[in-house]
Every structure is written in C-alpha cells, then in structure tokens.
Amino acid sequence: MNVAQPLEPDGLPDDGLLWVDDEAGPLIRPYAMTSGRTRPRHHDLDLIAVVVATRPTLPSDGGLGSVYAEIMAVCQRPVSVAEIASYLRLPAGTVRVLLSDLLERRLVRRRAPVNVNQLPSADILKAVIDGIRAL
C-alpha cells in the first residue's frame, strides 16, 4: 500500500528526489511544456525566423509559465528561433510551439526577413574587404 508523503511548504511531496539536474537542466519533458502540442499555430516560424519581444516582461495576469518568461528575456533583442532553442537548451520544435503562443498574445513579433535586393552586392563586399586589407 502506498502512503502519501508529507508535503513541503511549496505543495510538493518531500520524496527526496531532485527535479533539476544541474548539467541537464529541468527534468520536464518538452511535450509537457507545450501541453502535448507538436506543431505551432504559426507555420512561418522556421529556424531562421527572427522574433523580438514587444514588452520587457510577461504580464502578471498572463497565466504563462517560467519557460515563457525565459523566452521573453532572450527575445529582448531580435533573435532567431534556432538561437532561442540553443540558449534555453530546448528542442527547436518545442520553442516554435511556445513562440506561437507568445505570438498569439502579441508578446513577441516576427520580424520581416531581410530583402535579398537590399543586401550589398558581392562587388561591394569585395571592395570593403580589399579596403580593410589595405589598412
């Protein structure tokens, strides 16, 4: 027969188990972070999509977990989906689903990609490199 363990002040059982591994991070499966969802609602979030936060922190009444706050902290400057996944050590698919939630709440926005026609030509880049070498 299993006996209920006493609860700690935080409401969790005192089972002597650690729920965080310093080297591996939190011991929470990615699908638990996304409530089992595997696809983002916004399909334009590829790995090189650049997102940026629209505010410095999460709203206090947002009802979102700490992983969303971590994403918001990373997104204070324009950053790609791949970079966010790397910083947070989460699978890119999980980050895409979480970012989709933030996009729906307008807490982050996706920046338009750079127009290829606005990039400098190869000749200009070569001239810049030659000029730097001449210094």
TrEMBL record:
<dbReference type="InterPro" id="IPR036390">
    <property type="entry name" value="WH_DNA-bd_sf"/>
</dbReference>
<dbReference type="InterPro" id="IPR007995">
    <property type="entry name" value="DUF742"/>
</dbReference>
<protein>
    <recommendedName>
        <fullName>DUF742 domain-containing protein</fullName>
    </recommendedName>
</protein>
<dbReference type="Pfam" id="PF05331">
    <property type="entry name" value="DUF742"/>
</dbReference>
